[in-house]
Amino acid sequence: MNRKKKINQTLKAKAKKANAKLHAANKSPYIAKADREQLAQAQLVIAPSASEADSVLSDSDAAHSPAL
């Protein structure tokens, strides 16, 4: 390899690494399978209570609406 090509190659490689380092934050962190299962179970516990609250709200809305 001649000197110019070698210099350009090393500069491009450094620029590529620097650019990759800047965009590393866009990648989401890895979540272990066990942690994902715990999060899913926690959301299942939260979801039914939220649906119960929605049904209570819809019942109270029906009580306050004028009769036709």
**Number of DSSP-assigned strands:** 0
Uncertain regions spanning at least 5 consecutive residues: none
Give Rg in angstroms.
28 Å
Shape: rod-shaped
Structural class determined from secondary elements: mainly alpha
Distance between the termini: 88 Å
Alpha plus pi helix count: 2
Largest sheet data: none
Whole-number mean pLDDT? 79
What is the percent of helical residues? Answer: over 70%
Return the string of H and E elements.
Answer: HH
How much β-strand is present in the residues? under 5%
Please specify the SSE layout and strand pairing.
Blueprint: H1 3-22, H2 33-64
Description:
- This protein has 68 residues and is mainly alpha-helical.
- The chain has a domain at 31-62.
- The chain is built from two helices and no strands.
- The chain has helices at 3-22, 33-64.
- The relative contact order is 0.05.
- The model has no long low-confidence stretch (mean pLDDT 79).
Task: Summarize the model shown.
This protein is mainly α and 68 residues long.
Keyphrases for this structure?
68 residues, mainly alpha, 2 helices
